[in-house]
User: What shape does this take?
Amino acid sequence: MNKIKIILILISLIVASSSIARGDKQKATGAIDAKTFEKLMKAQELTEAGNHTEALAVLDVLKNRDKINGYGKAQMWNFYAFIYASQEDYKNAIRAYTEVIAIEETPDALALQAKYTIAQLNFQLENYNLVIKFMNEWVAAVAKPTPTAHIMLAQAHYQLKNYDKALINVDKAVELETAAGRKVKENWLRLKSALYYDKGDYKKTAETYEQLVSLYPKTNYLKQLAGMYGELGKDNRRLAIFDSIYLNDELKKSGDILNLAYMFLGQDVPYKAAKIIAKGMKDGIIEKTQKNIETLGNAWAQANQHDKAIPVLEQAAKLSSKGALFARLAGVYFDAGDYKKSASAAKKAAEKGGFKNPGNNYLLMGMSYSNLKQHRKALQAFRSAKKTKKILKEARAWEKHTLREIKLIEDLEKSKFELEEKTRKTLESKENNQEV
Assistant: This one.
């Protein structure tokens, strides 16, 4: 309830009443006699001074006068309504405004204003059906309904989940405001976005947020727009918005920054993700938990930044009670060509256990040992890997390859032994011949 507006309306009505009392030509409503006018002015003075109880007492005296005419009663009840509304006694205010409307001599303008205010007061009381009833009557009767009236109708329909009717009224309010050359109010567009969202129309929700961002460029609206792009599968646009917010140094929460990093990982841009997480940790925004450290290490690894990934994953692995991080570390060591550390990390992973794909870890362990020419250890690792069905075929292939390597080495050693034995015998035979 806009009390200042009510006061202005009231004063204008008193001035109008004064004109009638002076005999000026008005619509055929009758005139307010001097005594009635005097009482109304007294009530006004008391009201402005905050003496509402005394003002009501003055009006009660006036109400009991037999000589007060219909027009005077309309003004009196209008005053009652104003005082009750000032006291936030909305039910009595509505009752008084209803009396104003019921009086036959009430001017059309005053009756319409009463209906408008009844709608406002019912909104305060959450009587949304009555809001719609009286506001629709007001809109139908006036030549130029205001955008505010349509917004009130929209809000009432929204509360009753009449989303389509609410949208019709929001659009009408926006149309009227735009036609008047005024900037569309922020809360109107917010209501419109909420309506489309509740209807499940994410495309229209996004369009409304685009309008909000263009008129009121706030970070919160950018985030909401990004969320809508995510719902629409427009991940590149979603990422672009969050990245622009980040570059403007307006992402301050750990969750938001990590979310951006995950988006870059999802778009196969791990280097940017790692840079964002590393900076967040350096700035003290992102906590150095095992999970966050692991994410950072994995991002560096995916970006083939092994020199940066290794120390981070080593740190994460030390914080973990399970073997998964040592398995991941083994893979990074392998990619970096450090097969000795790869085999060692894979072995630690197997010892710790507690992760989903031990077969892959054994396979990597075997490949590391194979590169180190430690074929017996490699063979043992590949046979352990064969227990995992998903990599059975690959593990068997490596097992066969390793067996061939072992056989080749054995054959070479055997050939070397035979050659050495043959050479020894030949030399012994020559020595015997020389003696003979």
User: Anything to note?
Assistant: The mean pLDDT is 86.
